[in-house]
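ok so for the tutorial part 2 we go from a plain amino acid sequence to predicted structure tokens. step 1 is just haveing the sequence, like this:
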Amino acid sequence: MTAARFLTALVLIPIVVGVVWWGPSYLVAGLAALVLLPALYEFFRLGAQVGLPGYWRWTTICSLLLLYAQWAAGQVERHALGYGLDIVRNAGALNLSVDGVFLIFVGGIAAIGLGTRRPIAEIFPSSAVSAAALMFVALPFSYLVRVDATERVGKQLVLFTLCLVWAGDTLAYFVGRSIGRLKMAPLLSPKKTWEGAAGNLIAALLVALLFSYWMQTELTVMLIVAALANIAGQVGDLFESAYKRSAGVKDSGTILPGHGGMLDRIDSLIFAAPVVWCYVGWWSWRGHG
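step 2 — the prediction. this is what the tokens look like for a chain of 289 residues:
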């Protein structure tokens, strides 16, 4: 591990953990926005390099609205009365649903496409890359904000998601460098090996073991969630690698010394977050919420 990579992690990880654990939900959403904005910028810059200039301003606005919608959803309190009846509290006038954001996005894209001065031939590819940014980056990442707002266990689950990704990446790095032989996807990421992927999964399972003890939850369920989130995260890593290779670059950016771009840093987290959110739904369905 390079000195720059180590120092960057040493500075940023305590800040992120501190904000997640002690910060109010709106501060976590604000931090998520600070992470998402450069990631989206890098995504659109890569798209432009392969001839897909997107509507980045509009997509960025809608991505921030997604974060707000996820935060607002977490502020709504529902108390079940039985027979399909709920009492809803704190559902303010500024509440905005994820569905609503998508309708706003689609309407805006249509208006921009019809009113743009760009060549007509660019309307479809620009709309496509904009939709991809919203669907493959902003939406799944926004579920970290939604998980954070989960009653009683939200902050622990956000830390669980972060830790399984961080621990997995770290062990995969060392295992891959020391004993990695079998190439996983040489065309997409030449340095990734199956041995490193196995180390990645093992680290995630160890994190699940620790968090199961800390949160006093079922170990088997936590292991399953960690395994699924880890696999999803590794798929996300490869997916971003494919996008970068299509643009002919190694890293999405240079904002994080030793780590590359912001999109490089959160590619696994983007795909892992929705898996943990699905666990939150199961946890609530079991009657714990």
